TrEMBL record:
Keywords: Cell membrane, Membrane, Olfaction, Receptor, Sensory transduction, Transducer, Transmembrane, Transmembrane helix. GO terms for biological process: signal transduction. It comes from the Eukaryota. One of its GO terms (cellular component) is plasma membrane. It is found in: Cell membrane. Belongs to the insect chemoreceptor superfamily. Heteromeric odorant receptor channel (TC 1.A.69) family. It is a multi-pass membrane protein. One of its GO terms (molecular function) is odorant binding. This is Odorant receptor. Pfam families: 7tm_6 (PF02949).
């Protein structure tokens, strides 16, 4: 009985995402409808938890903003978590419910079945890319889990800090999260701690798995472009493998297949851009505010070791997330422009006029880079990271001036 879809590339993201129920149910347990129904119910429960978690974050933020005394450290802490999980929640809902998400997954599954031109060298290129993507995915997961675990260990219930504010004595207990509870958090601290511990790890799984899924979807075209570049560069060898008879019609059939592969890569990127357009814009706009909120905590008084650990782990995690998305997208853009060079390096001058004309058309199309878009804000690239960090600097400068 197959649990996951028959796709080597999707194997790791499917395993990760299915543990929290965000991998589309139609691709799970396809041979067993009962288990598929159970998984579907499990997915709804987990997504409901994610939405509920984000809602309690926003309720707590409203309470903090409307209180008589503004605790800027707590507000910054809450804002970091709230913005992050809003993006993650939106991505999770889109991945699970959107028909376009299912179509994107199905297109990858279908493309893996087309292998009649792939030889040992093509398989080697694909496996190399697959190993790289999997290694990054596993390392990212370990890093995120380590960050959360260190935070949870430090926040383990201990003697509360007693702070004297004038004539008032304030008892402060360490909390892992800034979420709303319908009861007194200090009175039932142990219960709150256990719930926060569960929420912390579930939330961490959502962040890690959604990011891994997104990273794999962004990185997928790179591996396909690598294979396409190799075949285009050695086109004279591959057309000979297709047919022992060398004639213009057979050669054109082979080249037509390569053009179709290029079109599928373009369609994958366009479909992803359409699917994640709103989330990409929101994440780009709020990333700088998110990082700034984390940094401003380190400049406030009464900074605890727990807060410092959170600030450092959160900031490093955010920077890793930015590079995970934007650097992978930048790689795809760079590889897409190399296709024209590979055709030029082939024995194009030995081909028929019809093939030469087709090659020229591909070269012209390859001059337009393939890009993952941030809505109307441009392309996802390394330059986008610089833009986010510049905006972060502006936010922090403004915050310091106001204080």
């Amino acid at each position: 009985m197959a649990v996951y879809p028959k796709s080597e590339y999707l194997k790791v993201p499917a395993i990760y995402c299915s543990t929290i129920g965000i991998f589309p149910w139609k691709f799970m347990f396809q041979d067993n409808k009962n288990l598929q129904t159970i998984y579907r119910c499990y997915s709804i429960v987990m997504l409901a938890w994610c939405i509920g978690f984000v809602v309690t974050d926003y309720i707590q933020l409203v309470i903090l903003l409307t209180s008589k005394t503004l605790d800027m450290q707590e507000i910054s802490f809450n804002t970091c978590i709230t913005l992050l999980f809003t993006c993650i929640g939106l991505r999770a809902v889109i991945v699970y419910f959107s028909p376009n998400s299912a179509n994107l997954i199905q297109s990858i599954i279908d493309s893996e079945k087309v292998t009649y031109l792939d030889d040992a060298e093509c398989m080697k290129l694909e496996k190399k890319h697959l190993r790289s993507v999997r290694l990054i995915s596993h390392c990212y997961f370990i890093f995120i889990i380590f960050s959360t675990t260190s935070r949870c260990v430090y926040s383990f219930p201990k003697e509360p800090d007693i702070i004297q504010n004038g004539n008032e004595t304030e008892i402060v207990k360490e909390h892992m999260l800034s979420i709303w509870f319908p009861f007194n958090q200090e009175k039932y601290y142990l219960t709150v701690y256990n719930i926060e511990l569960l929420d912390s790890f579930l939330g961490t799984f959502f962040v890690a798995y959604v990011d891994i899924y997104t990273f794999n979807m962004i990185s997928y075209p790179k591996g396909q472009l690598k294979k396409l570049q190799h075949i285009m560069k050695h086109f004279h060898n591959y057309k000979a493998k297709y047919s022992s008879e060398t004639n213009e019609e057979n050669d054109f059939i082979v080249f037509k297949d390569l053009v179709q592969r290029h079109k599928q890569i373009i369609q994958h990127i366009n479909a992803f851009n359409e699917l994640m357009e709103f989330v990409a814009i929101f994440e780009f706009v709020q990333s700088s505010a998110q990082i700034a909120c984390g940094l401003t905590q380190s400049s406030l008084e009464n900074l605890t070791i727990g807060s410092f650990l959170f600030v450092m782990s959160f900031l490093i995690s955010m920077l890793v997330r930015l590079f995970l998305y934007y650097y992978a997208a930048n790689d795809v853009t760079v590889e897409s422009t190399k296709l024209a060079q590979c055709i030029w390096e082939s024995n194009w001058y030995e081909e028929s006029q019809k093939i030469k004309l087709s090659m020229l058309m591909v070269i012209i199309r390859a001059q337009k880079p393939l890009i993952f878009k941030i809505g109307g804000f441009g392309a996802m690239s390394v330059q986008s990271i610089v833009t986010i960090l510049k905006a972060t600097y502006s936010y922090i400068t403004l915050a310091y001036k106001r204080t």
